[in-house]
Amino acid sequence: MLREDEAFAIEYLSVALEEIDEDGGEDVFLTAIRRLIEARGGMGNLSKNTGLARPNLYRSIAAGGDPKLSTILKVLQALGVGMSKVVSHRADVGISLTPGNNTSPTITLPNSGITLTPQPLTDAQKEALKNAAANTPAVVYHPSTEVPATTEPMEAVDTWIGRSQSPDFPQKAAQHSNSTEALKTSYEAFKSTLASVYPDLARKKFGFTIEANGNLKATNSSGELSDADTQQLNTLLNASSGLKAAAATYRETAIDMVDADSPWSGSYLGRYNLTKENFASSLDLGALFIPKTSTPSKDQIDGMFFNQLAYKGELHTQETEAAMLAARAAKKAATEG
C-alpha cells in the first residue's frame, strides 16, 4: 500500500511526463523524480540502493542537466517504480524495467498494444558483424594527401557551477512557509468576501500577483475575465490592505529563500533569478492555492511554486548571481553596521 506522499509523487510524475516536451517540461519532470526521491528516503538512501555515487546523481538528476535514459530508469528502479507503472494509463509509449536488467527497456506501441523487447544477437549475427568489421577498413589512407599539423593552441574553458546552499536556507524556508500560510488565510478571506458581494465575479477563475511597485494585479490565465472584470478585481485586490501586506511579505520571503538555495544541490531553487522586478511574470500567487484533490489536476501541479518557476522563471547567469550575492553582502553589512 503506497503512502499518500508516495502516491501523490507517482501521480505527479505521470502528469509531468505528459508535459515533458513543453517549455520547462524537463525541469518539471526532474522535479517530479526529486519528489519521489524524497518520498522514498532521500538522496543518500537512493545513492546506496543504486550504487551510483552521490555526485553522479546530483549531476545527472539534480543539476538540471540532460540525464541519460538509463540513469533515470536506474533511479526509478531503485525507487521501486517502473516507468510502466508511472505512465500506465496516461503515456503514449510505456517504458518498463525488468528486475536485474535496467539497461534494456521495453516499448509498447500505443495503438496495437504490441510490446517491443530488445533481443540479444545470435551467433550467426555476431559472426557476420565480426567479418564485416574485419573486411572494412577503418581508415582510408591517401599517401599523396598532406595532413596539416595542428598548430592552434588549446583553449581553456571555464565552467560556471554556481553557489552552494547557504546555512541560512532552513531559516529562510521556514519564514517562507509561514508567509505562505498567512497569504493563504488573507486570500481565502478576500474570496469569501468577494463571493458575498460580487458572486458572479467570484465564480470566474482568476489569480493574482504583486507588481514591482507593490500593487496587486489580477491574472486571467483561464480567459474568463473581461476587461471590466479585471479592472474591478484590481481595484478590490488593492483595497484589501491585509492581502496586499501579506503578498508583499510573501514576495520578500520567496526571494530570500531562492537566493539562499543552490542551483545544484539542496532544493535546486538557486538556479532561478527571482527579483521584485520579475516576480509578477514568474509567479501567480492565486495558483499556489488551487485546492488539492485525490488525483492532482494539471492546474494544481502547474501552480506549484517550483513548477511555476520552471515554466516562467528567469534563470541565473554567472553575472546575475554575482550581482545578487554582492547586493546580499552589502545589505548584510549595512544591517550589522
From TrEMBL:
This is Addiction module antidote protein. It comes from Pseudomonas amygdali pv. eriobotryae. It comes from the Bacteria. InterPro entries: HI1420. It holds the Pfam family dnstrm_HI1420.
